[in-house]
Description:
The protein is mainly α. The protein is built from 6 helices and 5 strands; from the N terminus they run H-H-H-E-E-H-E-E-H-E-H.
Amino acid sequence: MWLKITFFVQMHMWGHGSQYRKGPESLRGTQPTAMLRLPCFCCSAGCRNNIDHPRAKPLKDFRTLQTHYKRKHGIKPFMCRKCGKAFAVRGDWRTHEKNCGKLWYCACGSDFKHKRSLKDHIRAFGNGHSAFGIHCFDEDDDPASEIEQDQDVR
């Protein structure tokens, strides 16, 4: 019973701000599903998502906070073999490595580093704009969801 009360007091204090969190260690462990849906602030000082930032913006839930902390403040053990860019989330690294160095072309002559940018370009300009060249939209190169990427790291 005592442990349960302590847990709820800790969660209550978290609602008052990130200064009541213990740092990166507070991200470890499992939380009840109700806690996973509460808006959260980052515990890293100077971060845009920290409660002490002048224009603080909370993250939508605990899962997003975990992924944010890994991507922005955590170690980055995964490195692209082509360009050397480091990643904290394995799914981000795999997606990057699959597309690193690729260019996506439009029939108008424009080139794009990201397939998403080409799709946005085609949607924005419409007539006369379409994917061009050896890379077309047949294969699914879109990155996995954040949840799938987060589970890859474990």
